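dude i think i finally got it to work??
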Amino acid sequence: MSRRSGILEFAVLGLLRESPMHGYELRKRLNTSLGVFRAFSYGTLYPCLKALVANGWLVEETSGGPEDVPATALTGRRAKIVYRLTPAGKEHFEELLSHSGPDAWEDEHFGVRFAFFGQTSRDVRMRVLEGRRSRLEERLEKMRTSLTRTRERLDDYTLELQRHGMESVEREVRWLNELIESERAGRDQRAPEAAAQDEHNQSGDTGGPPRHRGGSRLDPSE
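look at this
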């Protein structure tokens, strides 16, 4: 499977996990929500959908609206096919979500992976973010080295273009730093909350507000 087709399958499974869709709606969501797919066509999408159906990850259903009756000699209309994620497809997508290797850090792959961070575990999010930052820091170092070596041979416009490229990478690195710090802060904040919940559960008190040491319930107004 090529990288391009692999990330398309990932995106299709992710969108259909949210809700079933027909092909036109799915293509529209890929175009508007995931910008990396703006240039792709039905000729790319439908072979992908057929492959996912063949693998048992999707099923095709005919929409039941009165306007979506099967084609006949009288109406000339065709039934709309709705694609629905199967349990096996959901399991496969969750497996793909757990991957955090170098493919997830690449330019177009990272954008798609980030779009589904809400469905991704915190540990995987951290590995993808840190991997992406590492990749960009390597790229930035190469750009700086190249600019230092070639600066005197570049005209003003080429030099400005290279500076613009460096600034874009630097901005994304700063953005990634903020995201990583936010993820870490959230994890650190939830750690004591989880410990307190464990202690609460071990005490045998499974409902209601916490007790005073004397045994009485805390008044919410206190």
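Residues 94 and 111 are 18 Å apart (CA to CA).
im so relieved honestly
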